[in-house]
Design a protein that fits this description.
With about 750 residues, this protein is mainly alpha-helical. Among the domains are: about 130 residues, no CATH class; about 80 residues, no CATH class; about 120 residues, Response regulator (Rossmann fold); about 140 residues. It has a five-stranded parallel beta sheet, with helices on both faces. A two-stranded antiparallel ribbon has the order 1-2. Helix 28 links the parallel strand 6 and strand 7. Helix 17 packs antiparallel against helix 18 and helix 31 runs antiparallel to helix 32. The radius of gyration is 36 Å and the shape is elongated. The N terminus is likely disordered.
């Protein structure tokens, strides 16, 4: 966007340039691309003006690039505008960019110059369109193929152009090979040219191996063998296993496969070869990545009787699409090759994530099911594999979709009980750096209601506490023996918005951490020795994912921080501002950023509902008492739905602390009357289920509410139900009658 400081004349010029840029993008598709032809000894007179334009375009480009390099804004700006004045300059600008060393780096530098970003954006589009049209223009390709049949000089020109066109030339080249009317001499020259076109034609040529014509099969296999690119191996192996293939064709394919992938590949199952190639695409390895200069990439198909078919997809989903296709091909050769199922599911889900907004995938039918449909239909073992991939790749969006499907379809046996391995992806997700991934994993493992303990089950409660606290504020624990440093760390934490607890000794600090039922960050001073302190903290399962800020010069810290991944180091003498900055950095590591009130309330409610479910089903695995502190804090939330979710969770668990917290909330006059009544009912349910564990003071408070004539009758009625559930001794109920009944 042009700044307001731009002179009016430049603003007008740029507006005109933008219009011209649009003209370039529309008009470039129809421009003449191949001016030189061997059959024409000289260019026609009508091309004189074009040649003159070429000279001027070249001069403008050189001055434009030079202006950026020497930071002469006016030179770069004016020559950039001149380039946009040539509606048909895209091809020449592209060719000039190819000849310019580090052209992309120079353009990136130019974007930082005043007012240059819009111009460079349009020049980039010119380069892209010039590149695309130069390669893909059908008329240019047809002309280049015709040149192959002419003189040696014409052949070289045509071959050079076909190399530039690469895969875009393949449909016409293969059509010539299939056509029985094609002269043998032209066929021979096409066969000679194709290996020169390199790895760019391996994808379409591999699809040609599905052809039924032995002659074309032999040509395709032979060319692939000359290119010697390993990605052709699974397709060649597939051809070798096809029934009815001629011995001569089989010999050519065998030689080609050995040339591409070596003799060892001959012993591998076809399904394994396709799976390995699918993995390369899924991992987006550079050897299979699409051209980064274009917004689209080509997916190839073979149509018997029609030849090669091409579908252009958004570049962002290209590797996903090919990973899906190849995984499916692996399954077609071995239906029991289960890793291919997981890979296909991961690629299908990721394709939905990667597809740009508003874009379409032409390889899929418009009404094709979404990836979520297949995920829900897939078994837990496959989804666990998908989740494992997502966690390894740091793909939170994919992890969230995998966990969502697991939460809706899988039970405890398939999630954790069948193998209590520490490496379970869902358990691993409990310490993921992304907050939403952690929360979803914790909720899924909680609501699965496992019947027996599993490795990592302690982390579930820690994650539930973290989710509960989204509505109750952030909490920090400061551990520092030095009083001055401890006070500085506390002040910095408060400045960063944390509620702070502090301890000087490690043993007491661990006790506080356990009682706190979850922390958002821990700050360490120079003593106790922070490296040893971190090891002690990490030994507590519920503290495994808590970020740590260490203000110390301990020599062991850097290596420990690198291996831990959740430790931020600041100077031992750091001031409050530096510590606060370190806290911000630590929060980012584990995804603890500001959350809006509705989102925070939603997570708190979901976590509280999970605790309530565990309490109502008397789950034997999780220690719900560790959530009591977080739930009690939530009881003071102003959001009635949030508060009631916490109250229901507390009512579902035993323990004096839970009942006393409910009694305090029910007796709080600041709480709305309707909410108080509901809390009284929950307290009564807890008393009936677990027996009365209230203190004398809480009991007296309930009695007072019953006999207090100033209380609304609805509150007195609700308190009376609680009083009845207390099952008080006769002496106490007699006193109530005497105090509250009218005197005779």
């Amino acid at each position: 966007m042009v700044t307001d400081r731009m002179e009016p004349s430049r603003r007008v010029s740029l507006a005109a340039a933008c219009v011209l840029g649009a003209v370039v993008l529309v008009g470039v598709a129809t421009m003449a691309l191949g001016q030189e032809a061997a059959s024409a000894p000289s260019a026609p007179a009508s091309q004189a003006s074009v040649s003159q334009d070429s000279v001027q375009i070249t001069a403008c480009w050189e001055d434009f690039i030079h202006g950026i390099k020497v930071a002469r804004e006016e030179m770069a700006y004016s020559n950039g505008l001149k380039l946009l004045d040539y509606p048909s300059a895209a091809r020449e600008v592209y060719l000039l960019s190819v000849k310019t060393p580090d052209a992309e780096a120079v353009l990136a530098r130019g974007e930082k110059l005043k007012d240059m970003a819009p111009i460079i954006e349009h020049i980039r589009k010119m380069i892209e369109m010039g590149y695309q049209s130069e390669r893909s223009d059908p008329n240019q390709i047809a002309n280049s193929i015709d040149l192959l049949a002419k003189s040696l000089r014409a052949y070289e020109i045509g071959a050079s152009r076909l190399e530039q066109s690469g895969e875009y030339a393949m449909p016409q080249l293969v059509a010539k090979l299939i056509d029985p009317q094609t002269p043998a001499s032209l066929t021979e020259r096409i066969v000679n040219v194709m290996p020169r076109m390199g790895k760019g034609i391996v994808r379409p040529l591999s699809e040609v191996l599905q052809c039924q014509d032995p002659r074309v099969l032999e040509i395709a296999a032979n060319v692939l063998g000359q290119i010697r690119y390993p990605d052709a191996a699974p397709f060649l192996k597939e051809l070798l296993e096809r029934k009815g293939v001629l011995d001569r064709t089989r010999q050519v394919a065998t030689a080609a496969m050995i040339s591409c992938a070596g003799k060892a590949a001959m012993e591998k199952p076809t399904a394994s070869l396709f799976y390995e190639l699918a993995e390369k695409y899924y991992n987006q390895q550079p050897s299979v990545a699409p051209d980064q200069r274009l917004g689209t990439a080509n997916v190839w198909y073979w149509r018997e009787g029609l030849g090669l078919d091409i579908r252009s997809v958004p570049r962002a989903i290209f590797c996903d699409v090919y990973a899906m296709r190849l995984a499916r091909r692996a399954l077609s050769h071995d239906g029991g090759f289960h890793p291919a199922v997981s890979l296909w599911l991961a690629a299908r889900l990721r394709r939905d994530i990667d597809l740009p907004a508003g874009a379409a995938d032409p390889t899929q039918e418009a009404d094709a099911p979404t990836g979520r449909f297949y995920a829900l239909a897939g078994s837990a073992s496959y989804l666990q594999d998908v989740l494992g991939r997502a966690l390894r790749d740091g793909n939170s969006a994919l992890a969230i979709r995998a966990i969502d499907a697991l939460s809706r379809t899988a039970g405890a046996a398939s999630l954790v009980e069948s193998s209590a391995a520490v490496g379970s992806p869902l358990v691993e997700a409990l310490t993921n750096s992304d907050r939403e991934v952690r929360f979803l994993a914790g909720l899924t493992l909680a609501t699965a209601l496992p019947a027996k303990r599993f490795a990592g089950d302690e982390k579930v409660i820690a994650v539930l506490n973290e989710a509960l606290r989204q509505s109750a504020g952030k909490r920090a624990l400061v551990i520092a023996a030095d009083g001055d440093q401890r006070n500085l760390l506390k002040d910095a934490a408060r400045t960063a918005g944390y509620d702070v607890m502090d301890q000087a000794e490690m043993t007491k600090a661990l006790a506080v951490a356990r009682e706190a039922a979850g922390l958002d960050v821990i700050l360490l001073g120079k003593n106790p020795p922070p490296a040893a302190a971190i090891l002690a903290l990490r030994s507590e399962m519920y503290l495994a994912a808590v970020p740590i800020v260490a203000a110390s010069a301990d020599a062991e810290l850097p290596a420990l921080a690198k291996s831990d991944g959740r430790v931020v180091i600041t100077a031992e003498s750091a001031g409050s501002a530096a510590v606060t900055a370190a806290l911000v950095a630590a929060a980012k590591i584990v995804g603890v950023s500001a959350m809006d009130a509705p989102a925070a309330a939603s997570w708190t409610i979901r976590a509280a509902n999970a605790v309530a479910l565990l309490g109502m089903t008397a789950n034997p695995v999780y220690d719900l008492s560790r959530t009591r502190g977080a739930l009690t804090a939530v009881l003071s939330d102003r959001n009635a739905e949030v508060m009631m979710s916490a109250a229901k969770a507390l009512a579902s668990m035993g323990g004096a602390g839970a009942q006393q917290a409910l009694a305090d909330a029910a007796m709080d006059a600041k709480t709305p009357e309707k909410t108080r009544i509901e809390v009284f009912k929950l307290l009564g349910a807890s008393l009936r289920r677990f027996g009365c564990q209230l203190t004398d003071s809480h009991t007296q408070a309930v009695v007072s509410a019953v006999i207090d004539p100033k209380q609304p009758q609805s509150i007195r009625d609700a308190a009376a139900e609680v009083l009845g559930a207390m099952d008080l001794p006769s002496g106490q109920i007699k006193a109530l009658i005497l105090e509250s009944s009218p005197k005779d």
